[in-house]
Amino acid sequence: MKTLLKVEQLSIRFHSANDSLLAVDQIGFSLGAGETLAIVGESGSGKSVTALALTRLLPSPPSCQIEGAIELEGQDILKLSAKELMKIRGKRIAYIFQEPSTSLNPVFSIRSQIAEVLALHRPEIKDHDAEIVRLLDLVGIRDARKRLHDYPHQLSGGMQQRVMIAMALACQPDILVADEPTTALDVTIQAQIMNLLKDLKARLSMSVILITHNFGIVAGFADRVLVMYKGKIVEEGSASHVLHQPQHPYTRALIDCIPRLGQKKQRLTTIDYSEIS
Length: 277
Hints:
The chain is an alpha/beta fold. Helix content is 32%, strand content 25%. The chain contains ten helices and ten strands. It has helices at 47-53, 82-86, 100-103, 110-121, 128-138, 144-147, 157-169, 187-204, 239-244, 249-256, and strands at residues 3-15, 20-32, 36-40, 64-72, 75-76, 93-96, 175-179, 207-212, 224-229, 232-238.
């Protein structure tokens, strides 16, 4: 499998007037062409910060300091100019974020928001309406042409997330980063969105990085899993191996938190940090 993305010795530190925080501590991983990698961990573990660092979407120095290397097919993203970065963001690496209602601009129609992406990254597209309808059809929005001039508030949460996926796919990216793409959705819609992403990944031959705290959506979707705790990778392996034979206490604790049918526990398992610190 061809290596598309390689991260080496990545450290991310945030600075304030009186303190500094090491959010990511010398982690490394790779992503192959057509592969799905899940990065799993609770809030504050460093997974979303890592995802944002891939295209340098974090604050500029001195408030944020990034060290290490992030190579996209041999090109170190951390050494690119602002102009060169514009060719990476969206076009090579695109994002889906966890709150579509806040990611979409409430004062612009769906058409205008996707058309802006096309104008910036695919100027060869002359008929924006036809391409936008194709993208909306691709992500399963019914009567796509009738939805062109709708505003975000006119769509359900699931449809808003489908629009966000359509915007990400508009640039035909090599890597799709899905950062908690189902957090704001109910369980039924979560399954629909994950099935959609799985189908699109196969049809478009993309690589996917899934950022999540929920091991329940990893099974059947990811090829490999990284488990992050306090800014470090504590376990790595195939999805099947990590899910069925977890080695690290933190991984086992996260898996134990998954609700299961027939489980008679009164509450979810509490993670005992004394065992893993």
